[in-house]
Amino acid sequence: MSDWTDDLKDMMEYEFEVERESRFAIEPSNITDYAWVNHIIDTYDASGRARIRIKNGVPRLSLKVPLLSQDTTTTKVCIRIEFKPVDKKQEEDLLKIRQLILAEKGSQTVEKFGAPITKSDGTKTWVNRDSNGNWWIEADEGVSLTLPDAIKIIGIMKSSIKI
Prior knowledge:
The protein is mainly beta. It contains two helices and nine strands, in the order αβββββαββββ.
């Protein structure tokens, strides 16, 4: 007789959070100054609420539900549920979903790169850039953003969720 954990082995793992995030557009220093360790290919459905993210070669599915009443001028708030495959079959299923999304009018693919940096206060964060020429640093609401002098904040970027 198998124990109950055998029933869970085929289930996809997931993360859930109420995401309260500010995206600060930056003027970076030299691109070669960074160790680009994250490579991400995001494929979004036409609404921008569902995406298949391929992060360092592994797909995952994210669903975002905007909480527009909680947005501020600098912070985007949403419910984020992200499903992570636990085996090759689930990875293949997510790649099939990606192909279905790509076949739909209004889908979009954006390539992104991430590099870790140390903030002025000694904590770590990420510099991000994408295939559209955008550079940014994300910060959770209420988290201090003390950046090295080589990085200048030039504005706020907010995603445009289609209603």
